[in-house]
Amino acid sequence: LEDMQESFKFCYEVHYQPGEDRSSDPQPPQEVQALQDKLQILDRQRREVLAQLQQLLGRSETPPDFLQQELGAWRERQQRACPPPPADTHLRPLETWFTPPGQGLFQLLQLLRALAALRQEVTYERDPLGVETPLLEQRLQELLTYLLQSAFVVPPQPSMPNACKRPLVLRTGSTPPARARLLVRLHDRNHPMEAPPHIDRSGPPGFRRFNILTSSSKTLLAGDSPQEGLVCDFPPLTLKEQKDSRSGKGSKGASEGPLAVTEELHFITFTLAYTYRGLKLELETSTLPFVIISNNNQLSSAWASILWFNMMVSTPPKHPPFFSAPPLAPWSRLAEVLSPPLQSVAERGLSQEHLLMMAEKLFGEV
Length: 366
Prior knowledge:
Elements lengths: L1 H14 L14 H31 L1 H19 L6 H35 L6 H24 E2 L15 E3 L6 E5 L11 E2 L1 E3 L10 E3 L5 E2 L1 E2 L7 E5 L4 E3 L26 E9 L2 E8 L4 E3 L5 H14 L18 H16 L5 H12 L3
Parallel strand pairs: 2-13
Antiparallel strand pairs: 1-3, 3-9, 4-7, 5-11, 6-10, 8-9, 11-12
Helix pairs in contact: 1-2, 2-4, 2-5, 3-4, 3-5, 4-5
Keywords: Cytoplasm, DNA-binding, Nucleus, Phosphoprotein, SH2 domain, Transcription, Transcription regulation
Organism: Trogon melanurus (Black-tailed trogon)
Subcellular location: Cytoplasm; Nucleus
């Protein structure tokens, strides 16, 4: 297409003078007719290229949808798991699936920009590049945004050290490590990409408020090993409860607020200013909801809240008032989540006889 356009430009500049009066000519000169033929061929070729790009974009919509399903299954396994899953083992296959579609979409973006550059050199009436190229680029950027946003994840969920393998339960002043990871492994080293963490950016009224005292942001970098991908590793984050200046105490007392401490659900959110090949996006990902306790006596109740929420909600919303009116669960679903915590600690789960005995204790004869 570039060669064809250069040939047309050369013929146009050599044989055709736009200001020349040709009204008296009975027939257009041979050179002008040849130029018109070249323009028709160029127009046809541009339309063929655009049709091919349309077809490629149509095919490119399938992989992100498939990957979203695979990622959704991974998120569900992560949510249902009691011990934190080994992130690298689970995410390495997803990274190998996410990266090639990202490469292909960025390559299509380069082609579209090359077509836009060709139009800057040569255009004409009813030029298909003038109408189609912006629409294709908008559609392509939507696909890239969808793919990259899906690929920004939190591999290990927050947890306290030595907390009986119970993630998603933290203690005030605790220092959980944190990591965010991008599964599309495309990185421009000339543009550092930072991901600051925030806790409870828009939490419900009445919840306690916390500040993160360490590491306001980190830069997305390649991990220490090829298995880690592009990660933002944060040192242990210190969570500090905000104080109420009116009372000199925490923003919520033991008997204040709509919910108990062990029923408040909190989030840490990471935002990433992603830049690659001229495309700039803001990506966002959040941890699963977790509970912040003030002493170890609240650990069991907090863990029960996490189990109940993860059992009933498959896609956690941001800051849900879940325990204001918690949904009921059938015994069959509750029985499914009782055995894994015991198995993670005692290396032995509950048998059907154990579950039947517990059901009889709770409900009488079943």
